[in-house]
Amino acid sequence: MIPEYVIDIKPRKSDVPERFVSLPRITEPPKLFSPEYWDWWEENEWLINFTVHVSNLALVKELANELGIACKENNKKKIESLIEQLRPLRVLPFNERTLLEKWAHMMRQLPDDIGGPNKEKIRAILSARCKGRVLEAMCGFNSYLEPSEKIEVTALDFCREALELYQHPERTRILFDLNKITHRKGIGFFQEGEFDAITICFGFHYIRHPIIVFQEFKRLLSVGGRLIFIENPNQCYSDMIYRCFLPENCVSCLKKASFESVQVEELAIAEDWEIEAGGHYFLIEAFKS
């Protein structure tokens, strides 16, 4: 298996590149919440919730103006023509996108990454525990490993946009989906014992089969190497998770993956408002003996 390296570099952008456009109603809706209303809504919802990429904004506004005139004139042929021009310009709603499309969308648009107000504290804690060759798995674009002569970091993620925006583009960046790992198929381009540490920050929620993935991570670790998680039950995109994070669940999966030594530490870095909302930060380490 040959790794797919990402070499492109793209700048961070906090401006959302999508805009809502108010289009004229082709037909007036029936009485609200009547049986006929829901049929009308299903047919017209895509026109009501019409969002476009900024590059198409001027064109869509021009077409919307023409559509308004055609509606006033009841020019059905013109209306049909304009609808056909508008339809392919609409951005697919977030809830209709694939999982990968959702991640790509967020990587391009979010001004910052998940991790709460404690990124610098987390970065210092995690960096102090790593040395040698480190795999930053499920890295997103926000690295939690500080540059250091003591570590050589390889970044791995399944989202190309995340790796293109990764804040340390000089590091090796590899595109790979951990959820494709099976009992028969691992990360074939990494050798046994290749890494001294593997880190995951706020990623446990998104691993479909954690025991299988952790078994592969154990293969990749050198003797004495460590798999390190930093997690928070509240730090996730809830519409895309496979499971909720609880320390005991993570520990159970690690032990089932044959990690004999597992340690759990609650990090005293949560803000008061995070604690009130049930958010606590945990550091979980599993060692390969």
What would you say this structure looks like, in words?
The radius of gyration is 24 Å and the shape is elongated. The protein is of the alpha/beta class and 289 residues long. It contains nine helices and ten strands. The model has no long low-confidence stretch (mean pLDDT 91). The strands form two sheets. It has an eight-stranded mixed β-sheet with strand order 1-6-5-4-7-8-10-9. Strands 2-3 form a two-stranded antiparallel ribbon. Helices cover 32% and strands 20% of the residues. The chain has two domains: 18-91, no CATH class; 111-287, Rossmann fold.
Output the keywords.
single chain, 289 residues, alpha/beta, Rossmann fold, 2 domains, eight-stranded mixed sheet
Morphology call: elongated
What's the SSE pattern?
EEHEHHHHEEHEEHEHEHE
The CATH class name of the largest domain reads Alpha Beta
Strands of the largest sheet, in order across it? 1-6-5-4-7-8-10-9
Give a brief description.
By secondary structure, the chain is an alpha/beta fold.
What are the SSEs and their pairings?
Blueprint: E1 4-5, E2 18-20, H1 35-48, E3 51-53, H2 57-72, H3 76-86, H4 99-109, H5 119-128, E4 132-137, E5 151-157, H6 160-164, E6 172-175, E7 195-201, H7 210-220, E8 221-231, H8 247-256, E9 261-267, H9 272-276, E10 281-287
Parallel strand pairs: 4-5, 4-7, 5-6, 7-8
Antiparallel strand pairs: 1-6, 2-3, 8-10, 9-10
Helix pairs in contact: 2-3, 7-8
